[in-house]
Design goal:
Helix content: 25-40%
Low-confidence stretches: none
Distance between the termini: 26 Å
Number of strands: 12
CATH superfamily of the largest domain: Response regulator
Number of helices: 8
Largest sheet: 5 strands, parallel
CATH class of the largest domain: Alpha Beta
Order of helices and strands: EHEHEHEHEHEEEEHEHHEE
CATH topology of the largest domain: Rossmann fold
């Protein structure tokens, strides 16, 4: 999963980046708010924003993110204890607020919780299991390694199981912010439907797809 980190303290930025990268996250770090804003469409599964940064503060960036990505987790990290600042953060749609100083472990736990990140093998439907770390899909003893886009798509469906996943969100997460035509998305859906029962993925006309396998 890709994470955008905005933190103007160079040492803290490097510490967070190093820790999250060691956990397997793909981290793009910024110390300037305007530079971070230019990158918000690059397919991030989570945003971690400091408030008091140069050019464009974290609250303003949060507002702009929420215009296009209403459901992507956004974690605010700040030394401010002012009630108004905390209230504004939640009012404009932050998912969680962490006061500095904090242990990086706390941030890591928040990210894993908000993004449903787990190293365990996920089981679903009729005895299917999926290991996102190895990209292995297994069913009745048969194992198949998924391509990167198939892995990202299935991981997205599993994290948003029972919810409608829009074309825009698929483009953002699976194509990591790059343009994807509707035909490209449909082609990827067809490939995944060949590897799991077709009725696990329901088409929601003009919106996207609903991943709703039967309960295991």
């Amino acid at each position: 999963m890709k994470i955008l980190l905005l933190e103007d303290n160079t040492r803290l930025n490097a510490t967070i980046t190093k820790r999250l990268s060691a956990k397997g996250f793909d981290v793009d770090s910024f110390e300037d708010g305007a530079a971070a804003y230019e990158a918000v469409d690059n397919g991030y599964g989570c945003y971690v924003l400091d408030i008091n940064v140069p050019s464009l503060d974290g609250i303003e960036l949060l507002k702009r993110i929420r215009e296009y990505y209403p459901y992507t987790p956004v974690i605010i990290i700040s030394s401010s204890v002012e009630l108004e600042t905390i209230r504004d953060s939640y009012h404009f749609g932050c998912s969680d607020y962490i006061k500095k100083p904090f242990f990086v472990d706390e941030l890591e736990i928040k990210i894993e919780k908000l993004c449903n990140v787990t190293n365990d093998i996920v089981t679903f439907g009729d005895s299917y299991s999926f290991d996102a770390l190895s990209s292995i899909l297994e069913h009745q003893g048969e194992r198949e390694r998924l391509s990167k886009k198939e892995r990202l798509l299935l991981g997205l469906f599993l994290s948003d199981q029972g919810k409608v996943v829009s074309y825009e969100k698929i483009q953002s997460i699976v194509w990591e912010g790059n343009f994807a035509s509707l035909d490209s998305i449909r082609s990827l859906i067809r490939r995944l439907r060949k590897k799991i029962p077709e009725n696990y993925i329901e088409t929601v006309v003009d919106i996207g797809y609903l991943f709703n396998p039967p309960k295991a």
